[in-house]
Design brief:
By secondary structure, the chain is α+β, with helices and mostly antiparallel strands. The protein has one domain (about 1-144): RelE-like (YaeB-like fold), CATH 3.30.2310.20. It is about 30% helix and about 40% strand. The chain contains 3 helices and 7 strands, in the order βββααββββα. Strands 1, 2, 3, 4, 5, 6 and 7 form a 7-stranded mixed β-sheet that branches. Strand 6 and strand 7 form a beta hairpin. Helix 1 (about 35-40) packs across helix 2 (about 50-65). The longest helix is centred in the last third of the chain and has 17 residues, at about 125-144. The radius of gyration is 15 Å and the shape is globular.
Amino acid sequence: MGLEIVHRGQHWLMQAIASTKVDDANNEVKTCELLQFLSELSEDATYCKDVAKFYTYAERCCANPNGPKSLGVDICHDVHSWTDETGREVVLWQITAGGIRVVFFYEPGKLIICTHGFKKKRQKFDTAEGRHAETLWRNYCKSK
């Protein structure tokens, strides 16, 4: 488990969770679910403008002292929360860029950690996406 940089701004750093796997030749290969998702969608005429919009939002929020909250609640808002084993409340947030969503959480030091992205399916946050983000968050915490 590691992190890949999505955007580094004057005030905030946005990174995405990456995993390391061993390929058939016994080489370690780092893959980032979010960056792979965005790369694939950038080739799709239906979503390429949404990907560009997400990167614009990433740049804007990393340059602003208020971070993602500076984007406004229509673009960035909390979508899922739970209490972890230590009793701490964990909150997942979402950046909306057209037909795509990117899920993230905050870490100390003005750090935004993105778990993954997905295509919008309906108005409400999908519980399967919440469970997936929760799993990625737990794996991230174990690897720290």
